[in-house]
Amino acid sequence: MAPAPHVLIVEDEASQREILAYNLEAEGFAVSRAETGDEALTMFAETAPDIVVLDWMLPGVSGIEICRQLKRRGDAKSVPIIMLSARTEETDRVRGLETGADDYVTKPYSVAELMARVRAQLRRSRPVTVGEVLEFDGIRLDPETHRAFRESTELKLGPTEFRLLATLMEKPGRVWSREKLLDRVWGRDIYVDSRTVDVHVGRLRKALGVPAMPDPIRTVRGAGYSIG
User: What is the pLDDT of residues 181-204, one digit of tens each?
Assistant: First the structure.
C-alpha cells in the first residue's frame, strides 16, 4: 500500500488539536499540526498533506483566508479542506463552502462523525487509501488483495511498482513530478534519489507490457510521468 494519508490539522486550541491528532493517528493517518494560519501555509508547502482540517477562528490570519489562499494555489486545489467552526448559521456555512472548503463541520462535533467525513473526502481524492478498487483503460488495481490486472492478465508487481501504479491511477492524466512521486510512493521521511523513480517506472512499464497493448504511461519531458 501507499504511505498513510497525511492530515494537516490547523487548530489553535491545544486540547482540540491533540484530540483530533490522537484519533486520526489511531485510525492510521499521519498527522501534522499547525496553530496559526501562517504556520499552516508554511507547513502545507513543507508536508504536502492529502487533506486539511482547518478551524475558522485562528489568531492572525483566519481560517477562511487560509482556505481562500490554498485554493488559489496549483498544488492545493485538489486537496480537500474540512472547515471547523462554532458558527452555526446557514450564511456562515455557505460562506465557508463558497470560499473553497469541501466540507463544513460545526462545533461541538462528534469525533466519530469527523473521522467519517475525513474518510469520505479521501475516498474522492485518494481512493486507494480507503481500499477502493481503481480501474482505468483496462487496468484494474485492488488495494485490499494487492493484485492488479491488465485486461485478463495478472500483473507481476513488486511493492514499489504497485504503489507507483496506484498513485498514477488515482488521477489519470495528471502529470506527477519525480519529487511528488517520491513523497507519495516512498514517503516523506525516506531519502531516495529522484533517478530511482525512473528505474521503477521502467519496471512498471515492463510489467504492464501485455502483448498488442500500448504503453499506458506517458513521459512528459522536464515534468514527470502520467498514466493516460
Answer: 888 888 766 677 878 999 999 999
Tell me, which fold does domain 6-129 have in CATH? Answer: Rossmann fold (3.40.50)
Residue 203 is placed in which grid cell?
519496471
Q: What is the pLDDT of residue 149?
A: 95
Regions of the chain short of the pLDDT cut 50: none
Task: Tell me, rounded to whole angstroms, the distance of Cα 77 from its chain centroid.
Answer: 11
* CATH classification for the domain delimited by 133-227, as one of 3.10.450.50, 2.40.50.320, 1.10.510.10, 1.10.10.10: 1.10.10.10
The single-letter code of the amino acid at 160 is: T
Q: Is-contact 148 155, C-beta < 8 A? A: yes
Q: In what order do the strands lie in the sheet with 6-10?
A: 30-34, 6-10, 51-55, 81-85, 103-106
